[in-house]
C-alpha cells in the first residue's frame, strides 16, 4: 500500500512539476510486448514515447482508469487484445478509431 501511494505521489509530482513541462519526457517505462492472439498478423509492442505528447505529458488520461500504473496482473499479461474488444472501446480502442488512427492499416501496430 505504501509503495502504491508513494508511486502515485511521485507521478503527481512529476505531472505537476516543471521538469515534465520543460519539454523532456519523464522516464517512461520500457517497450511492452502485448500478448498475441492466434489470428494476429504480427506482434504488437506498446511504446509510451509514441503515445505521449512531449509538450504536454498527461499520464492520467490512461492511468489508472484504462490501464493500471503498477503493472498488469498475471491474467492481463496473458490475455490477448482483440479487435472485437477494441471495437467496443476497450484497451487500445479507447482512443484508436476515435481520436487516434483507426484499424485500417495493420502495419501501424503489427510487426511484419
UniProtKB/TrEMBL annotation:
Residue ranges of domain Cytochrome c7-like in the record? 44-110
What is the residue range of the signal peptide feature? 1-22
Q: Which UniProt keywords apply?
A: Signal
Region Disordered: which residues?
A: 26-45
Its domain of life reads Bacteria
Q: Write down the SUPFAM superfamilies for this protein, in alphabetical order.
A: Multiheme cytochromes (SSF48695)
UniProt xrefs under Gene3D superfamilies: Cytochrome C3 (3.90.10.10)
Matching NCBIfam families, A to Z? nanowire_3heme
What is the official name of this protein in its record?
Answer: Cytochrome c7-like domain-containing protein
Amino acid at each position: 500500500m505504501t509503495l502504491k501511494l508513494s508511486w502515485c505521489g511521485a507521478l503527481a509530482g512529476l505531472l505537476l512539476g516543471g521538469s515534465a513541462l520543460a519539454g523532456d519526457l519523464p522516464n517512461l517505462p520500457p517497450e511492452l510486448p502485448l500478448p498475441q492472439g492466434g489470428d494476429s498478423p504480427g506482434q504488437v509492442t506498446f511504446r509510451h514515447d509514441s503515445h505521449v505528447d512531449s509538450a504536454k505529458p498527461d499520464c492520467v488520461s490512461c492511468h489508472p482508469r484504462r490501464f493500471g500504473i503498477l503493472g498488469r496482473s498475471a491474467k492481463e499479461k496473458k490475455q490477448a487484445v482483440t479487435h472485437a474488444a477494441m471495437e467496443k472501446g476497450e484497451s487500445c480502442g479507447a482512443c484508436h478509431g476515435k481520436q487516434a488512427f483507426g484499424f485500417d492499416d495493420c502495419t501501424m501496430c503489427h510487426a511484419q
